[in-house]
Specification:
Chain B: One of its GO terms (biological process) is intracellular protein transport. The complex is a heterodimer. Chain A is mainly alpha-helical. Chain A has 8 helices and 3 strands, in the order βββαααααααα. In chain A, strands 1-2-3 form a 3-stranded antiparallel sheet. The chains are: A mainly alpha, B mainly alpha.
Amino acid sequence: MMPRAVNVDLQTDGTLQVDISDALSERDKVKFTVHTKSTLPSFKQNEFSVVRQHEEFIWLHDSFVENEEYAGYIIPPAPPRPDFDASREKLQKLGEGEGSMTKEEFTKMKQELEAEYLAIFKKTVAMHEVFLCRVAAHPVLRKDLNFHVFLEYNQDLSVRGKNKKEKLEDFFKNVVKSADGVLVAGVKDVDDFFEHEKTFLLEYHNRVKDASAKSDRMIRSHKSAADDINRIASTLYTLGTQDSTDVCKFFLKVSELFEKTRKIEARVAADEDLKLADLLKYYLRESQAAKDLLYRRGRALVDYENANKALDKARAKNKDVLQAETTQQICCQKFEKISESAKQELIDFKTRRVAAFRKNLVELAELELKHAKGNLQLLQSCLGVLKGDT
Amino acid sequence: MKMAASSERSPPPFPDAEDQESEPALRDEDSDEGADIFLGTNPLEAMADSTFSASDVLSDLPNDLLGEPPSAVFGDPLSNISKQESTSNPAKQSSKLPSDVPCDIFDPLHGTGMEPKDDGKNASLIDIVINPVTSAKDNLPVDDLLSQPEIDIPAKTKTEQPAELRSEERPKDEPLSVASSKPKKDLFEDSPEDLFSELPKTKAKTKPQMDLFGDSSPDLFMDAKAAADTGPGRNAPADLFSEESVATTTSKSAKSNISANSIVTANSKANGVHSDEEEQDIFAEATVELSLDSPHNNRKTLDTTKPSEPASSLSAAAGSSKAQAKTLEELEEEESEDKFELNISITNPEKVGDGMNAYMAYKVSTQTTLPMFRSKTFTVRRRFSDFLGLYEKLSEKHSQNGYIVPPPPEKSLLGMTKVKVGKDDPSSGEFVERRRASLERYLQRVVCHPSLLQDPDVREFLEREELPRAVNTQALSGAGFLKMINKATDAVSKMTIKMNESDVWFEEKLQEVESEDQQLRKLHAVVDSLVSHRKELSVNTAVFAKSVAMLGSSEDNTALSRALSQLAELEDKIEQLHQEQAGNDFFVFTELLADYIRLLGAVRGSFDQRMKSWQRWQDAQTTLQKKREAEAKLLWANKPDKLQQAKDEIAEWEGKVTQYEREFERVSATVRKEVIRFEKEKARDFKKQIIKYLESLLQSQQQLIKYWEAFLPEAKAIA
């Protein structure tokens, strides 16, 4: 359907390929058509499609998070909620202001906003697709039952959004978790690798968060500038159509030029958004997921150490030793299991990140060059014409 | 005779010798008979630019002219002439004075005669419409056209003088001069009552005679034609110049004076015709009127006064003007290509003083080859209020005549306060630069205007070391408020005055100007928003660059870390680009629009002047109507004692009506000419500036390509 905005996957083997082939925007929800091609025997067919909504994606994500089995993995970050409110509001405002502008301006503005809406829509779809692809490419998560149900079951999964009580619980859980996270993070890790990863991720996450916010602002002002050029073009056009004198023709030509350059400018902004801002945003969430993994491991470590202490105590008192031993063993196993997979996950995370940055930055540079060259050519030819005239 | 002497004194530039002579000739006469009158009328005409010397020199002669001849007589390259004359003055002051005046007026122009080659260019610079001609003589038409009153003086005094001469034999002439020449009203006020014996007749004659006294150029041209008609029966208008020369040779002084003047005006008129066709209507009208209005009255006046002056020099003048007419068209073309020989730059803004009394002084440097200036390069220091003062002076003198006087940049209390208070605030630096640039553009527009360049105040502004402090600009700083009031009253009068526009051209143009004004304002707002968004973009890019640099420093993959810091550097450079571009958006584009919004205001002002003039004419007509009705009533009531007064009043108002109509036509012609000039200039300005702007965009795209091309391998090197 469209090139994926953020390529975050390592090469996959092709046994399970997932994409979103279509999406439908309804009043307050978006319906994604999830298309799967697979040779895995667990699926009834090789190729099939189902319709899913954003809530179902969230359900899938949460089921991963809640699954203890996956504690040692970086859970692919859930796609952000589709947000068309701003765009819709603008469209509505445009409708109200219809009387105050000329027909051409109105049509132009409407087209602009529709284009904006479409861009947000596409972005939303892309984010959801990225999530599925990440899961499909993950050696363990791809085998998840819920995931398979998500892909194959052609009925409504009848997941519902969380109710107030659950949301409140989530909130408290988060508070406890972050308080705990501080506690856990304070514990010196026995493993240098994890100790390093911990400090790295803490810093990285904050910086990528900052960069993401700053890139958004930069792109927003770029878009505003492009809008201004657009309005300059239309005002010049009005000026140029006043009569047929020499200057007016001149104005028309310049207007035509601006009309073209502003399209390019807008595309520059859109591409920066897609290649840069979205990349940063994705890694904001992914680094959060990696942090979560480290938290889980840290938690397990603390549990393990506590179990050790409890075992020592039990042995000293010679009381409940067996129970303490089992707890200690369970904790130990859990910790080791998490550590084992987490190490690989973090290494993969880095590899994926470098690859994704490389791909996106190269593409960004190429697009920027393409647009700048397009702009340059427009300016050159226009200047040629204008200078020839004068 | 004086003129013989003066022509000997400056033999090489043959044509201007005639100018000297023809003008003195006029004044010599009136100095004999009506020196007082002449002096009395002058202040009234002091408004016109070239009368500067006439009025100033005449009224404050001992101080200005004699005291320090070279400086009072501005930029006089041939100061020896003026010196000689001025030194000879004291002795013959009363008799010769007026004759010196014209010399002084044209002295700077004589200078042009010394460098004939330059001169052609100068003339072209001086007036777009009036054709550049290779001899200094052409400066005369320029002056005359620009300052109608200048023509008035001779015209009035001349016609007066026959009136006085013949006052006994032809008393009916008296009321005419009363009606026409307002300034002299007091002088003649009493006489008409006794002299009015044949009222109906005078009434009939009033109108044609009026033309003589009227100050609009078509009249003078008519006179010239009339004069020509009196000559040996040549009527073909195409041969106008030669005709006149013939006419002038045959006729005697008073008459030749008329023709001299009219040649001058006719000349400039003809030039106007060459330069733009629209003017032809006016011209044509004038000639049509002429055929109707040139009855024996003119001839009588002319014939009855046969002074002793031989007019040989005048024929020469006419001859030269004829020659000049031939080259008019060619020169007209050259003129548009000729580059301006006057470059003005404003540099070195400097804060003078401290605290709230501090102000910025700017260095105004002029580079010119125009001989009207004393040297080729000179520099003065001016402060902002001086610029405002210049505008005030120019506007007072010229805008009522329909000229578009370029408005100066607005006073900015906030910006200046910042400059005064904050020392190293970047925004105050930007403010000063912005003001410097707009002052420069303002001044360039002023000197680009052929008539304004001639204004002594402009020259004084550029040349004089110390200007008297412009006082009333303090009020002008509150000018925003005053202007608002003015605009409000204008708007009201616009609503109440429903001008029955006879000329579609004006109607359409005004509409055009108004809608253009609206569009430009809109465009200005949008470009302004582009500037602020671009600035915002620049700031945000800088912030992002910093953020990416941080991200890069925490990235533990070396290649990616390196690429990210490269990206940060790239964004830093792009930030610079955006900033520069925002500067270009502003200085090249926004300021251009702001200038033109102000200028369009001035254009509308000139339309308003035209309307005011029309209104005055209409009002006079209404009053005349009322007077006539009153007269009819008196006739009916049979009150002969009051009847005479009523008739006088009618005659007076008839004169006014004609005068105002003339004025209206003159203002209309000026407005039309000015608007055309303005549009030409606007087209040129916009093309130049927008191309400049696009070039700046082009450059920034080129830079952008360079930057990204350098980055691409870095991105590819990530592994």
